[in-house]
Design goal:
single chain; about 120 residues; mainly beta; 7-stranded mixed sheet; 4-stranded antiparallel sheet
């Protein structure tokens, strides 16, 4: 299995940037589709971004397109989420996740492994 540890959250003003990182350990990291999810209080966990095992295809939810960029480095067993032009509505706990299928990646149920979460707070 894969263990994921995510980090990089913090408090920033609107318009600022943060880079979230996720370090993976365990077997066959490069075979997994990876995603970033976020969950705000009282709301469902939503998929922010996802990337296929080979890094060729990426997905972003509409609200973050043009502002967030997901990447992976299979050689270093890491994934990242660069978040620019942050807005207060981006405030949430962010989780990295590892899945299996490249064709299913939007739902939390598509993922087997999860990081512990890192808090992102964007002030007005």
């Amino acid at each position: 299995q894969v263990q994921l540890v995510d980090s990089g959250g913090g408090l920033v003003q609107a318009g600022g940037s943060l880079r979230l990182s996720c370090a993976a350990s365990g077997r066959t990291f490069s075979a997994y589709t990876m995603g970033w999810f976020r969950q705000a209080p009282g709301k469902e966990r939503e998929c922010v971004a996802a990337i296929t095992w080979d890094g060729i295809n990426t997905y972003y939810t509409n609200s973050v397109k043009g502002r967030f960029t997901m990447s992976r480095d299979n050689a270093k067993n890491t994934v990242a989420l660069q978040m620019n032009s942050l807005k207060p509505e981006d405030t949430a706990v962010y989780y990295c996740a590892g899945g299996v299928l490249s064709t299913r990646y939007v739902s939390p149920s598509d993922y087997l492994y999860w990081g512990q979460g890192t808090q992102v707070t964007v002030s007005s």
